[in-house]
Amino acid sequence: MSLSKQSESPFLQGTNLTAVGDYNRSVVLDTIRKAGQISRVEVSHLTGLTSQTVTNMVRKLIDSGLVQEEGTVTVGRGKPRTAIRLNPDGRYAVGIHLEPAKTTVILINLAGHIIDRDLPDLPDDSAQAIAALASTVSLLLGRNGIPGKRMGGIGIAIPGPVDARRGTVLDPPNLSGWRNVRLAHDLELSTGLPVFMEKDVTAACHGQTWAGRGEETGQDFLFMYMGLGIAFGTVRHGHVYQGRTGNVGEMGHIVVDTSGPACWCGQRGCVAVTCDPRSLVKQAEKEGLFPAPTHVQDPRAFNDSADLPFLDEAFKSLCQRAHGGDEVCRDLLLESAGRIGRAVTILTDLWDMDTVVFGGPYWHLLKDIYLNRVAQVLRRRSVLRQVHNFKVLSTTLGGDIAAIGAASAILDHDLTPGPAPGMSGRDRSAI
């Protein structure tokens, strides 16, 4: 089978070599997860493993509580066979989305369903905040009776830049008091659970691949994260690309309006000063759309989070007025959607992608205005418009997508196979 044919299938191939039990176990489990409900015969066919290997692996997965038998499936003309599927209660993970406006902590099961949630108010001091997070995690696990042996760990989604290798928050622009904080290390010490930290847009990509509607997005897509900042992520062959340092997706200095305001980087009309919520509020205020000062800082001079409550209130008001029939407010957002469309066009051309998924904390306020406009710009301006049938979609996971993604990254890391023995990561990327 050629590489191009293999890349069309979401199912990984196992190997019948010796001493590869852990890898094969992960391949079998990943195949069952993606299929939903499947027979052992189908698992053998999709993975290339012998029926005996699959039978042995499935037995072990059932014994460990990760897989269960449920119902029957018909394969060809033969008699119905016993169906196997994930046991949703076989493994749990906690996801934390630490964002400037609010913090979300969720508990999900192996199927990606949210079991419980909390929205803790965190103090500004990072050490006290980590203690509060540990207390919240303990509360969620305790009130849901989750045994320690079924906990995969804690995933954290946080604005960049991050040092993902060391689990350190470097200096996020909207989180005061979080400079050079060893968040993953300190939270692991406080909870006794494994902790994995990644950038919020990368976590959102994990959420979309694990719990989103894969049948619509396919195995290759761009994710556009609409929060206080705007970023993008990339998924290829069902795998989230994280970049060399875990900071993939910075797009704030893509120029989308050559006559736009000056940016601190020396250019004019960057995404960072024309498209994010702070920029849109300041533009609306400049045009007299707010009767009183918003107290929102200019994005070029922004250096702390003191204006966040004002920003959240003003941006929601602007969007509500646009949806309520205020044509001037609507035109302002449509203009911004056009700029985002230009940025998306650049990114889809660079990555040779035809599917774009939008989500993030502020996306629900924008989607009704942005979706069609972005699609129009993309289909009109893309260099690849003659070979791509573009799809522009909204995530089905709502504002929780980064928290879901942070938790699912734990499950994905724990349960999804890495490169097969003897295969490099580069080789695997072609599968």
Automatic annotation (TrEMBL):
InterPro entries membership: ATPase_NBD, ROK, WH-like_DNA-bd_sf, WH_DNA-bd_sf
Family matches, as Pfam families: HTH_24, ROK
Superkingdom, natural source: Bacteria
Source species taxonomy: Bacteria, Bacillati, Actinomycetota, Actinomycetes, Bifidobacteriales
Family: Belongs to the ROK (NagC/XylR) family.
SUPFAM superfamilies: Actin-like ATPase domain, Winged helix' DNA-binding domain
Organism from which the protein derives: Bifidobacterium polysaccharolyticum
Membrane spanning residue stretches: none
UniProt protein name: ROK family transcriptional regulator
